[in-house]
Amino acid sequence: MRIGVTGSGGKLGRASVDRLRADGHEVVGFDTVGTPGPGFTRVDLADYGQTLDALLGVTARHAGLDALVHLAAIPVNGLVPDATTFQNNMAVSFNVLFAAQRAGIRSVVLASSITAMGFPFDDAPPSLPVDETFTKANNTYGLGKVAEEAMAAQLASWGDGSSITALRFTNVVGPDEYGTFARADEPGYRRDLLGSWIDARDGAAAVSLAVSGATPGFRVYNVAAPTSGTAAPSREVAERWFPGTPVAPDLGEFESLMSTRAIRRDLGFTAVDDWRSPPQT
User: Fold this and answer.
1) How confident is the model over 47-92, as pLDDT tens digits?
2) Sign of CA dihedral 21, 68, 144, 194
3) N or C: more exposed end of the chain, with fewer CB within 10 A?
4) 198 neighbors 271 (Cβ within 8 angstroms)
5) Strand pairing of 172-173 and 198-199?
6) How many CA atoms lie within 13 Å of 71's alpha carbon, on the beta-carbon side?
7) 256, 169 in Cβ contact below 8 A?
């Protein structure tokens, strides 16, 4: 397929472009930063006209896209004022999703976030591991993700055969960032992330699976390493952080408290990288 990737210059974007190309797809990256050339076009996605034009076609780059991966966003609260985070991300996602509809792109993968489901989890979730049925935003970045998912669910029904898959990513860790796991035995390490994490290359694998496994309608999946980023067993961690919260009786010894059971079941997702056996950088 010919696949567009917004936010292609980011950590997950770079990994996704590499993975999709390795899978044999032609990829065109769209971002505000990057070196113009084959496979990349600089686009201000906050401008609907630029966005629609870029998705319809770019001379010397592409004449139409079969699928789109939307990763572009202000990535966290704090980089700009809170209202700006929400307003920018919502405007960009509307522009991209609506332009994709107008351009006839029927397969879209959208980056959502663990922030849509309770981050930083000051209040205990209803049960563990936390699955895709739980939604609770506590900041404007997370609120934007909740709103983007709701918008995507509606837009998926506007086009015959349209598929939009939202992937709720947790903290994306690059191959050169495994040093942080030296703190994995600290009692509060990654508590605000339910102890979860995902290697950028495994996140890219999830993107690839969502593209190739697209089916009509809207779906949402958690994306995390199936094993926890904490050194202690998951049941012990759950009791320490969320005493009294119901825990699945079949929870694995080091299973992630951000459930990845759905994406493993439906898309066959298997994470390759584990902080316990760091990759070569």
Assistant:
1) 999 999 999 999 999 999 999 999 999 999 999 999 999 999 999 9
2) negative
3) C
4) yes
5) parallel
6) 28
7) no
